């Protein structure tokens, strides 16, 4: 049986505070990211704002339910194993405060000025900062303490996806302009007059697609943050998946296979903790295992196996074996209860209902030199929905904000109206500054809270 430790008053208080922080962050995330899904349909009067945000929230919810959790834990794995599961069993309060404090502060700052900033960049920057802060705290080399391969993989997806949105939406708009001659598609909204007939239906359809895909990708990020919170504060209860007791014997078997792999390729002693964890896992007794300790050992072993899988000196067979073992072990610590998915969808939806106006105005009137037309909005959203959904199901986090913003910019270029340089500079500055600022803030906060 699994053993669970009693919780102190401090742990319960920390849980309440950090849970409030994660909910507020997701609420603010709705200001930024989910507003992109409803911007076009509201701006063109295709749906009333309340109807649009309720519908978008519902589609976000469905997207969260069907989107899986690969993106969620792709972000979580940016953190070192000892931060994810402290070896002494202490709650991970400094990590959570550093993460949410940093991301929330920058999100609110950019929202106040109506700049379409990326919540994904905020979270990723804060996570990288925490990993760097942990390395400095333990006087470890940054090259060996931070999983740079995972970081570069995520940053590549974040950098390439807006370019694809720009080119794809611009190209689609060019095609639509030459194939469909209905003037309704190319007229900006006139007062409160709604778009007519099939154009309105098209915009509702593209809004639905972006909302669903946003849930399948950004909703997973919310799930990852909520799981970080409940696992970090109450590791004994949430450290392992509910059905993990039946998988402990398999974990022990996999650890036996992993031991020689990690030992063989750990030439510099960088994964001594992983080797020690492998030894403990091979000796795991289902009747005496402590959930939080088992989780910490599993993450150390997963980190060691990832290093083997990425080692070019390892044979193809050994790399494939390491990847397979890692995938078999992970489900025990990478899961999400149904109520976490529900909470994620609710926080995003409520944030959208309250804070959408600033971003809607920016996307509708300030990206280009002319106001947004239905054809431009539909092209940007159709391409954006495809890119976001594809990334969500391949486990790569992308920025809904940057994809949709870049898509609208692409359609403005495609129409020949050009881009508003002032707003473009603001968006570019936010894009350039977000990672350095959040990495620095995250590292400094985590370091100070731990000394």
From TrEMBL:
Membrane topology according to the record: Multi-pass membrane protein
* One of the GO biological process terms: phosphate ion transmembrane transport
InterPro entries cross-referenced by the UniProt entry: Phos_transporter
* Keywords assigned by UniProt, alphabetized: Cell membrane, Membrane, Phosphate transport, Symport, Transmembrane, Transmembrane helix, Transport
Give the stretches traversing the membrane: 12-31, 52-75, 95-115, 122-142, 154-176, 222-241, 338-356, 428-449
Give GO MF terms, alphabetically: phosphate transmembrane transporter activity; symporter activity
- Gene Ontology terms: cellular component: plasma membrane
Q: Which Pfam families match?
A: PHO4
Q: What is its main location?
A: membrane
Q: Where located?
A: Cell membrane; Membrane
Catalyzed reactions: phosphate(in) + H(+)(in) = phosphate(out) + H(+)(out)
Q: Spell out the family assignment given in the record's similarity comment.
A: Belongs to the inorganic phosphate transporter (PiT) (TC 2.A.20) family. Pit subfamily.
The protein, known as: Phosphate transporter
Q: Which organism is it from?
A: Komagataeibacter medellinensis (strain NBRC 3288 / BCRC 11682 / LMG 1693 / Kondo 51) (Gluconacetobacter medellinensis)
